[in-house]
Amino acid sequence: NAGVTQTPKFRVLKTGQSMTLLCAQDMNHEYMYWYRQDPGMGLRLIHYSVGEGTTAKGEVPDGYNVSRLKKQNFLLGLESAAPSQTSVYFCASSWELAGGNQETQYFGPGTRLLVL
Amino acid sequence: ILNVEQSPQSLHVQEGDSTNFTCSFPSSNFYALHWYRWETAKSPEALFVMTLNGDEKKKGRISATLNTKEGYSYLYIKGSQPEDSATYLCALQGGATNKLIFGTGTLLAVQP
């Protein structure tokens, strides 16, 4: 199993350009998440999904859109990139919670994005 | 907004030293506490998920304790080795959605 994979690994954008980051998982996880990691700050949740066809806002959703058309994929879109979106983006997935369980999140390797 | 704090920010120890660090969180919004280990250039990997007050979990030389009433968790590493060098993250799960609020981590460097 590949686990959680992310493409691309690194990208440079100009301000105003758009792009889509792809996250794929082969563990049949129900839940998927997008985080950003910035210096001096913890991982911050951008958007998440609790199942195919569903998405919800996290802590820092502005400037991003997501889609979960297939259970194994979770796409993060930047419609008009800004320098403030320069960051490292991590995708994660987990089993769904059932009956008060807590489930570990499995992380991808990250995508480093630089917006000039 | 829930705030998760970790201390110290960074720690340098010698090989063989035992060490510990702290994760503090608001006790009023507790569902579970997660610990992750994050090596440079890799992805965060789960160490423990803890839910009950007084919980203690152990994996090899690493162990963790939880106090939900006062809102803290300790991570202990016994006999640190260079391969333990990593950032240790804790994350608060504040509800049943599995959304995590991460601390900024403790960066541990173990010198041979």
Explained architecture:
The complex is a heterodimer of chains A (116) and B (112). Chain A is an all-beta fold and 116 residues long. Chain A has strands spanning 4-7, 10-13, 19-25, 31-37, 44-49, 56-57, 65-67, 73-78, 87-94, 106-107, 111-115. In chain A, strands 2, 4, 5, 6, 9, 10 and 11 form a seven-stranded mixed β-sheet that branches. Chain A has a four-stranded antiparallel β-sheet with strand order 1-3-8-7, with no helix packed on it. The model of chain A has no long low-confidence stretch (mean pLDDT 92). Chain B is an all-beta fold. Helix content of chain B is 0%, strand content 54%. Chain B has no helices and eleven strands. In chain B, the strands form two sheets. In chain B, strands 2, 4, 5, 9, 10 and 11 form a six-stranded mixed β-sheet that branches. Chains A and B meet through strand 4, strand 5 and strand 10 of A and strand 5, strand 9 and strand 10 of B.
Q: In terms of topology, how is this protein built?
A:
The complex is a heterodimer of chains A (116) and B (112).
Chain A: E1 4-7, E2 10-13, E3 19-25, E4 31-37, E5 44-49, E6 56-57, E7 65-67, E8 73-78, E9 87-94, E10 106-107, E11 111-115
Chain B: E1 5-7, E2 10-14, E3 19-24, E4 32-38, E5 45-50, E6 56-59, E7 62-67, E8 72-77, E9 86-93, E10 100-102, E11 106-111
What are the defining features of this structure?
heterodimer, A: 116 residues, mainly beta, seven-stranded mixed sheet, four-stranded antiparallel sheet, B: 112 residues, five-stranded antiparallel sheet
Summarize the structure.
The complex is a heterodimer of chains A (116) and B (112). Chain A has 116 residues and is mainly β. Chain A is built from no helices and eleven strands.
Shape of chain B: globular
* Global mean pLDDT of chain A: 92
Residues in helix, % of chain B: under 10%
Structural class of chain B: mainly beta
Strand content of chain A: over 45%
Structural class of chain A: mainly beta
Shape call of chain A: globular
Order of helices and strands of chain B: EEEEEEEEEEE
> Gyration radius of chain B, to the nearest Å?
13 Å
Alpha-carbon distance between the two ends of chain A:
36 Å
**Low-pLDDT sequence parts of chain A:** none
Helical stretch count of chain B? 0
Succession of helices and strands of chain A = EEEEEEEEEEE
Low-confidence stretches of chain B: none
